[in-house]
């Protein structure tokens, strides 16, 4: 940085913005350690006056919170793994094969990215009913994967950059088409898979409306569904909800930290190329 | 596997951890009664009592499930014919949605004959059977009566020299409590309000309308929400909010309202029995400072109470053993000692008259400065206004919210808001009647 | 497997899922929208009646207006914020860059339901932090004129960091020579921003604009938990309205009509945007 004034301004702005962004998160942390009477108190207290672990202990005692975490993990990881498979295979086909109908099919993939999933809530619901898939996990996961167009697109962008020589060489060495996919393409798109898996995992971990419609047995609920029942007309456990929010962010935060490098690398390569 | 990279490995590992738990989770449902409820207080009550039922019925297991969005889920379960419970509680404002189709499509078991066989039909407060009855058939047992009283800060009244006995009508209320709406800091808004009436949600208006003899539909399903009673009730409601500034407009049952009570900003609340227990739980600081009086009447000598909320228990047609389910329904709703315990925890008055002779209803209540709340509530209980089941109630109630909001915030006049509402509710019926 | 069939094999999973769970439901919703549906088995053909009802339904237009307001607000407020964050972070020698980036990105990690509850606490008139800091007594969520701006602000908080990541990626791919050339031509920072940065970012901007728009039109969990569509219907959105009719009132036919209307609106807007930006053509 050449200009010290500009540098200072940049840092000041960045720190101010960070404070602004982190304040609501701080509020979550603070509220989760407040006794129930203190969350609504005048004047509002920034730090808990009388810090307590009660919200956490009650969360584990009064809620099947571990079960929700397991359910959420199962749903989100199945979704992520399937998404990775679908997207890398589709992306490979578009990037490295020329075949009849490629243009049309690729246009369909692009168009599919424009169709919001929530448009078809009602017909999907009746379809799941016909399949007998209401209140099942496949009923939550599979329809959601119909919106993997973005993943296919992202992977195609990446795989375009994989040298075709590598593929030809593998073919000469007698590799099958699936072998090429598995041994040449997959290793080459690791960072992209990191980025896509973060997207996929986040979306599935945090989705509220679709599981709310499909799942009805509370034992199958995900974290957002289960915790949402803490507040409403009949219950006003804001402290417990904030504690639950904190618990649901932590694993995701850890995952993100573990894969931040791949994520940024993936985005950088994927979003930019046009 | 290293060539796969971090992402598939991490997520694959997590998947492998969660998968067995999901797959091998026991789903043994033989001889279980699945029972859906929507409120935490009900959950606490029933989970304590279920062991007794299981002990009396060996081999039977009752699975209690607290379900969020219970009514949406139950409706979907009925429509799809699978996945419903054996028994469910249903809330009064949602019950209409379950009676939209033909008689064959009703998801609940007709309990009329069973109730008659028990010889208990006349034991119930009749106004509480009506909400779940269609064409003389009863589809649920009522849990409650929910008579409404006026919870007021008697310490503040005393200091201001207001005699609660002098408040017999709503006009008295306005006259007597006007001095309480003080604006000490001079910002043009009172710092304390004699009553809390929501300008956004219809609950408070609705119970005042019922008290005044009004309603949304008449017995035959005709729309009466734009009649003179409704208009004058809403006009009065709005005047308390706006011209008189006696009512704080921003709350219905928000958590912030309890904090505002604690601060002494709210001095009175329209309080059904259950709400008084909420106050006891969320504002324990005000113990001994509240008391409850009968609602001010619309005209001298008229009805001094109303009703707000309500729940039924119903056996669903998906129940594998309806007789056993019925046994549980009676156990859950009609056991005298259990009802007394429920009262201690929630102040809920049961809809069964014979139960009111239990001594629990004559115990003084410390939270209300020693007032014998049970007696006041049971005296008012027989007088609560009726409520007619209507398939369009959910939609109509949603529209009512908009009308109350518009009138209370001066977007439309009360008369205009209600006639607009009535028009929409009538259209609602026309939109769907041709398919019947 | 012959190489000739390989691409079809690789594409099969996507197109199978897309066909069953998207294309079929889209067409089915056309059929549903011509029926009055009272139960899974109880369907009556009513022709265009649902569409007539939709056009005459003031609440539908309110929901459309609110949704469009949120989408426009996101576009006009959130994207510039996201770009500004990216510009601030674009210098690779910045200390603590990863930490800043993680902070800005962190709201994306939280489910919308939780965000709604967090903002419910923050926006409270008397007990919330926002009014406390501003020293005001604003009824953020109960004033019909403020509730949508309040939602837009919550949306900015939630998504700005997400879009920042895209912009950051775009900025890093701009070749340094372009800036140097501009500097040689005597361009100041503002001119080089307008003449170098913006044109180079065009594909990223297009991508972000279109995805944000589509996301905004699906707004559900924030108002559903935060305001229940209120006050009155001042924060009712299209998907909330669809949910209400589909899953609370079980007017499946009417709900399908709402969904279809939403599809048409988003389709038209997307096509206009794609044309405007001239992107998404295969190379």
Keywords:
heterotrimer, A: 274 residues, mainly alpha, MetI-like fold, 74% helix, globular, C: 283 residues, two-stranded antiparallel sheet, 12 helices
General description of the model:
The complex is a heterotrimer of chains A (274), B (436) and C (283). With 274 residues, chain A is an all-alpha fold. Chain A contains 14 helices and no strands. The radius of gyration of chain A is 23 Å and the shape is globular. The two termini of chain A are 30 Å apart. The relative contact order of chain A is 0.14. With 436 residues, chain B is α/β, with parallel strands linked by helices. Chain B is built from 15 helices and twelve strands. In chain B, the strands form four sheets. A five-stranded mixed β-sheet of chain B has the order 2-1-3-12-6, sandwiched between helices. Chain B has a three-stranded antiparallel β-sheet with strand order 10-7-11. A two-stranded antiparallel ribbon of chain B has the order 4-5. In chain B, α14 runs antiparallel to α15. The radius of gyration of chain B is 24 Å and the shape is globular. Chain C has a single domain, classed as MetI-like (MetI-like fold, Orthogonal Bundle), CATH 1.10.3720. In chain C, 71% of the residues lie in helices and 2% in strands. In chain C, β1 and β2 form a beta hairpin. In chain C, α11 packs antiparallel against α12. The longest helix of chain C is centred in the N-terminal third of the chain and has 32 residues. Chain C is globular and about 70 Å long. Classes of the chains: A mainly alpha (274), B alpha/beta (436), C mainly alpha (283). Chains in contact: A-B, A-C, B-C. At the B-C interface, α3, α9 and α14 of B face α11 of C.
According to CATH, the homologous superfamily of the largest domain in chain B is Periplasmic binding protein-like II
Determine the mean pLDDT of chain B.
90
Tally of helical runs of chain A: 14
> Can you count the beta strands of chain A?
0
Helix-and-strand structural type of chain A: mainly alpha
- Coarse morphology of chain A: globular
Biggest interface and its residues per chain?
A: A-C, 102 and 97 residues
What's the CATH topology label of the largest domain in chain A?
Answer: MetI-like fold
C-alpha Rg of chain A (nearest Å): 23 Å
Distance between the termini of chain B: 62 Å
Number of domains of chain B: 2
Q: What's the name of the CATH homologous superfamily of the largest domain in chain A?
A: MetI-like
Low-pLDDT runs of 5+ residues of chain A are none
Strand count, sense and barrel status of the largest sheet of chain A are: none
What helical percentage do the residues of chain B reach?
40-55%
* Averaged pLDDT of chain A: 88
Identify the strand order in the major beta sheet of chain B. Answer: 2-1-3-12-6
Proportion in β-strands of chain B: 5-15%
Binned strand content of chain A: under 5%
Poorly predicted runs of chain B are none
């Amino acid at each position: 940085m050449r200009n010290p004034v500009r540098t200072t301004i940049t840092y000041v702005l960045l720190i101010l913005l960070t404070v602004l962004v982190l304040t609501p998160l701080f509020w979550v942390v603070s509220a989760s350690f407040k006794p129930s009477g203190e969350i609504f108190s005048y004047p509002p207290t920034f730090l808990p006056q009388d810090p307590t672990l009660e919200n956490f202990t009650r969360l584990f005692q009064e809620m099947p919170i571990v079960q929700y975490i397991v359910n959420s993990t199962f749903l989100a990881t199945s979704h992520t793994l399937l998404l990775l498979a679908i997207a890398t295979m589709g992306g490979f086909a578009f990037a490295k094969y020329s075949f009849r109908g490629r243009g049309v099919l690729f246009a369909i993939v692009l168009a599919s990215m424009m169709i919001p999933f929530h448009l078809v809530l009602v017909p999907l619901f009746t379809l799941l009913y016909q399949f007998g898939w209401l209140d099942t996990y496949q009923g939550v996961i599979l329809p959601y994967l119909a919106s993997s167009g973005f993943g296919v697109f992202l992977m195609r962008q990446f795989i375009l950059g994989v040298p075709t020589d590598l593929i030809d060489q593998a073919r000469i060495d007698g590799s099958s088409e699936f072998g090429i996919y598995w041994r040449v393409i997959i290793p080459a798109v690791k960072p992209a898979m990191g980025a896509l898996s973060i997207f996929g995992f986040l979306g599935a971990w945090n989705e509220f409306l679709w599981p709310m419609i499909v799942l009805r047995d509370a034992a199958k609920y995900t974290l957002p569904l289960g915790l949402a029942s803490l507040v409403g007309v009949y219950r006003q456990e804001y402290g417990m909800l904030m504690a639950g929010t904190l618990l649901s962010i932590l694993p995701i935060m850890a995952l993100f930290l573990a894969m931040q490098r791949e994520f940024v690398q993936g985005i950088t390569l994927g979003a930019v190329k046009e | 596997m290293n060539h796969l990279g971090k992402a598939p490995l991490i997520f694959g590992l997590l998947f492998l951890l969660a998968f067995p738990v999901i797959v091998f989770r026991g789903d043994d449902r033989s001889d279980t009664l699945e029972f859906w409820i929507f409120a935490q207080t009900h959950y606490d009550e029933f989970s304590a009592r279920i062991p007794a039922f299981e002990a009396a019925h060996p081999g039977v297991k009752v699975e209690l499930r607290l379900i969020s969005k219970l009514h949406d889920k139950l409706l979907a379960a009925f429509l799809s014919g699978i996945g419903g419970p054996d028994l469910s509680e249903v809330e009064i404002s949602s019950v209409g949605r379950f009676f939209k189709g033909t008689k064959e499509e009703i998801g609940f078991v007709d309990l009329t004959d069973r109730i008659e066989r028990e010889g208990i039909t006349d034991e119930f407060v009749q106004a509480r059977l009506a909400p779940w009855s269609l064409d003389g058939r009863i589809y649920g047992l009522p849990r409650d009566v929910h008579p409404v009283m006026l919870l007021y800060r008697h310490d503040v009244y005393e200091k201001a020299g207001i005699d609660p006995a002098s408040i017999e009508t709503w006009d008295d209320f306005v006259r007597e409590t006007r001095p309480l709406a003080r604006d000490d800091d001079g910002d043009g808004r009172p710092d304390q309000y004699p009553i809390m009436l929501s300008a956004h949600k219809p609950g408070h208006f609705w119970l005042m309308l019922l008290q005044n003899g009004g309603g949304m539909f008449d017995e035959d399903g005709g729309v009466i929400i734009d009649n003179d009673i409704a208009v004058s009730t809403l006009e009065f409601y709005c005047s308390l909010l706006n011209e008189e500034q006696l009512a704080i407009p921003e709350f219905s049952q928000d958590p912030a309202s309890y904090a505002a009570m604690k601060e002494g900003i709210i001095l009175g609340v329209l309080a059904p029995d259950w709400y008084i227990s909420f106050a006891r739980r969320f504002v324990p600081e005000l113990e001994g400072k509240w008391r409850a009086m009968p609602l001010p009447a619309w005209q001298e000598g008229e009805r001094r109470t109303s009703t707000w909320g309500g729940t039924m228990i119903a056996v669903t047609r998906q129940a594998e053993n309806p007789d056993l389910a019925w046994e549980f329904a009676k156990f859950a709703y009609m056991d005298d000692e259990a009802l007394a315990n429920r009262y201690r925890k929630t102040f809920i008055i049961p809809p069964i008259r014979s139960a009111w002779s239990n001594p629990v209803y004559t115990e003084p209540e410390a939270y209300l400065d020693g007032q014998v709340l049970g007696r006041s509530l049971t005296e008012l209980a027989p007088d609560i206004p009726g409520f007619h089941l209507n398939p369009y109630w959910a939609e109509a109630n949603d529209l009512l919210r908009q009308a109350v909001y518009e009138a209370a915030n001066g977007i439309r006049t009360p008369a205009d808001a209600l006639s607009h509402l009535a028009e929409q509710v009538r259209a609602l019926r026309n939109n769907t009647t041709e398919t019947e | 497997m012959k190489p000739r069939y390989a691409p079809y094999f690789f594409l099969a999973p996507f197109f199978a899922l897309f066909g069953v769970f998207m294309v079929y439901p889209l067409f089915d919703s056309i059929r549903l929208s011509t029926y009055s549906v009272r139960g899974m088995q109880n369907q009556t053909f009513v022709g265009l009646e649902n569409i007539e009802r939709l056009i005459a339904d003031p609440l539908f237009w309110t929901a459309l207006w609110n949704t469009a307001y949120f989408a426009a607000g996101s576009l006009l407020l959130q994207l510039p914020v996201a770009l500004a964050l990216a510009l601030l972070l674009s210098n690779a020698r910045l200390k603590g860059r990863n930490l800043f980036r993680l902070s800005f990105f962190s709201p994306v990690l939280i489910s919308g339901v939780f965000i709604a509850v967090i903002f419910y606490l923050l926006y409270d008139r008397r007990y919330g932090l926002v009014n406390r800091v501003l020293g005001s007594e604003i009824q953020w969520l109960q004033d019909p004129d403020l509730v949508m701006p309040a939602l837009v602000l919550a949306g900015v908080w939630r998504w700005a960091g997400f879009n920042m990541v895209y912009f950051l990626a775009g900025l890093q791919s701009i070749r340094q020579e372009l800036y140097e050339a501009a500097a040689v031509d005597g361009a100041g920072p503002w001119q080089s921003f307008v003449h170098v940065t913006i044109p180079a970012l065009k594909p990223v901007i297009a991508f972000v604009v279109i995805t944000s728009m589509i996301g905004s039109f699906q707004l559900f969990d924030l108002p559903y938990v935060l305001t229940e569509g209120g006050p009155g219907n001042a924060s009712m959105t299209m998907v909330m309205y669809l949910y209400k009719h589909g899953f609370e009132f079980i007017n499946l036919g009417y709900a399908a009509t709402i969904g279809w209307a939403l599809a048409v609106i988003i389709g038209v807007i997307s096509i206009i945007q794609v044309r405007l930006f001239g992107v998404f053509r295969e190379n």
